[in-house]
Each structure stands twice: as structure tokens, then as C-alpha cells.
């Protein structure tokens, strides 16, 4: 059997990493951060436990990367949904609704994420976080920002503050109230984006299947039923 090409090996590694990211958001969302171990994540992902440390320095870094992945893919999906638009105000509205929607629909996961950022390790840079930053900065540009290097950090801070306010145990602020305040700041109409009552009208519920946000399908050149070679210890 001829050796796999470099591109196939890279794809195997990418899919293995994404399986770990998906497993992390699923388990932390189900059980919380403290009750989730790296072994649990590896088992859910179908990976060797030693493989986790190959991609991530520790659990905190893995979970932050996983949540940033979910956030940037959720935002990306919201911005590109039909009907597609280049209108800056509509795209800002969609961005706000996408992030607030995560606080509403995945409170355990997002609460753990916010708590992790406040730990000593703080806010960690990773490819997933950089992609999220690029998307939010682009939203500011499309919205008409003359100084996106200043306006993007403010948008990020406002969204993080709103998520925190929505998730404070005992005294959470309603997401519609937070949405109205952000919409007022950015001069958006209530009907733009995804209004809070849109789901109730259409009967939509939170989609718990996260697979569309993570490229975890069958890797190339892996025969059906044969173990994924990337799942072996490095």
C-alpha cells in the first residue's frame, strides 16, 4: 500500500482536530467544564487520549478554541443565510442576533466560556478566535465604520458584555432587552436580523446538532470500517 500524500495527512489531522473541538462543545454544554475531562473529550471524538495534547496545551485552550469555532461558524452562517445581503445594517443585526442567540440557546457552554476568559490564562489567541475577529471586523466595515481598528474592539466588548449580562446566575438580563439596547446603539430596526419572536412564529427550536459547524466527515483514503490512522497516538 503506497504511503498517503502530504495533503491527505494534513486533511486527516484537520478532521481529527475538528472532532475534538466538536466533542468539547458538546460535552461542556451537556455537563459543564469541571465535569468534563480530556479523556471524556477524546472518547467522544473517537481519538486516542494522547492526541489531545498534540493539538492543544490543555483543557482550557481546547474549550476556548472549541467555543470560538462554534461562534465564528454560527456568525458565518448568519451572515451568509438567504436572502443574502451586503447591507451593512442588516449584517450588523445578524451578527448581534447570532451571538446573543448562543447565550440564549447554549447557556451552560457560553457561561463556562465567559468564566474561562476571566481565569488567569485569560483570552487565548487561536485560529478560531482570529476568524471570529475577522468576521466581526468586517461587519464593522460593512456597517460604515471609518475606524474599524477602534470600532471592532468596542463591538466585541459590547457583545461579550451582553452575553455576560444574559448569563449572570440569579440576575440575568433578558436577551430581548440586551438586543434592543445594542440595536439602538447601532441604529438598527427591530425587524432586521432575527427578531426575538421569529422563532416562536415559525416554530423553530434550538438545533442541538453541531455537526454542520465542524468538518468531521469521513477522511479521504480511509477505507470504510478501517480505523482512522490519525486517531493513533503521535
Describe it for me?
With 234 residues, the chain is mainly α. The protein is 61% helix and 0% strand. It has ten helices and no strands. It has helices at 6-31, 38-45, 50-55, 59-80, 88-105, 107-117, 127-142, 148-167, 175-185, 198-202. The longest helix is centred in the N-terminal third of the chain and has 26 residues, at 6-31. It is globular and about 55 Å long. The two termini are 21 Å apart. The model is unreliable at 200-205 and 219-234 (pLDDT under 50).
In brief:
This protein has 234 residues and is mainly α. It has helices at 6-31, 38-45, 50-55, 59-80, 88-105, 107-117, 127-142, 148-167, 175-185, 198-202.
Radius of gyration: 19 Å
Task: Work out the helicity level.
Answer: 55-70%
Percent of sequence in beta strands = under 5%
Largest β sheet strand count, sense and barrel closure: none
CA distance, first residue to last residue:
21 Å
How many helices in DSSP terms?
Answer: 10
Q: Which regions have little confidence, pLDDT < 50, spanning 5+ residues?
A: 200-205, 219-234
Beta-strand segment tally: 0
SSE sequence, one letter per element:
HHHHHHHHHH
Quickly give the structural class: mainly alpha
Tell the overall outline.
Answer: globular
| Average of the residue pLDDT scores | 85
